[in-house]
Amino acid sequence: xxxxxxxxxxxxxxxxxxxxxxxxxxxxxxxxxxxxxxxxxxxxxxxxxxxxxxxxxxxxxxxxxxxxxxxxxxxxxxxxxxxxxxxxxxxxxxxxxxxxxxxxxxxxxxxxxxxxxxxxxxxxxxxxxxxxxxxxxxxxxxxxxxxxxxxxxxxxxxxxxxxxxxxxxxxxxxxxxxxxxxxxxxxxxxxxxxxxxxxxxxxxxxxxxxxxxxxxxxxxxxxxxxxxxxxxxxxxxxxxxxxxxxxxxxxxxxxxxxxxxxxxxxxxxxxxxxxxxxxxxxxxxxxxxxxxxxxxx
Length: 297
Ligand code: R5P
Description:
- The chain is α/β, with parallel strands linked by helices.
- The protein has two domains: 3-148 and 284-295, Rossmann fold, CATH 3.40.50; 149-274, Rossmann fold.
- The protein has helices at 15-25, 65-81, 109-119, 149-159, 175-185, 228-239, 258-264, 286-296, and strands at 6-10, 28-29, 32-36, 42-46, 54-58, 85-90, 122-128, 143-146, 165-169, 189-191, 193-196, 203-206, 216-224, 244-252, 267-273, 281-283.
- The longest helix has 17 residues, at 65-81.
């Protein structure tokens, strides 16, 4: 199968990302008429012929997550009813953090998201750096996660002076990702112990025994939402005398004044990928998905 067998439908939350994929794959972009009514409801009309085509419906599930999810479901249903084979391409997969029942009675939200997608006719899912790969097992159709880490590492190698850099994982959950990143940029790394109170959401961080004084610390995480995890790690790093703290993440969710709060905690720069399109999205990682689709053949 060649790239031309695919058609790309850019969902409202991922227009630039979808265009970047289309350019690399040299494939058509389907015409979409879209408007939002004053009450917040969506109107869509797919104006291209998609019957029998493999359609890459590109829609990141960034905030407002539920709104973007409903948009994806509406579009997927129409595409599949029209006879298309629907791939949901969600560069950021909202709800991925709730992939299991941590406390008794909790909704396993990601499982419900997968069921909704299946009932809307989605046949494949591709995302970037899913929070925990266990989440992929909740989907009833093939679901894949590709990594943005090599692209972030390449950007940082080319743009930053790494001579005094140490790479920091703010918790165990990110340690494999951070180890890969540290190897790619060829710098030492350490893993902080983080505990999150699952009821209050409060985060506590314990640093490892490592010489931090005078270093430039790059805290690498899959996502930054409230900034709480980065702030806790930055506070500890600053106590231990680091010269500079830079935050690096795949998914810049950036809820509730996260950027301002991180700035106040001494984070001097934020470098993110474009799975969510923000002012900090310096690294285009659409190639990770394109490469994966090419491999599938
Ligand atoms: C958690 O395990 C994740 O890897 C992130 O560290 C976390 O979700 C970031 O959220 P926040 O910015 O709200 O601390």
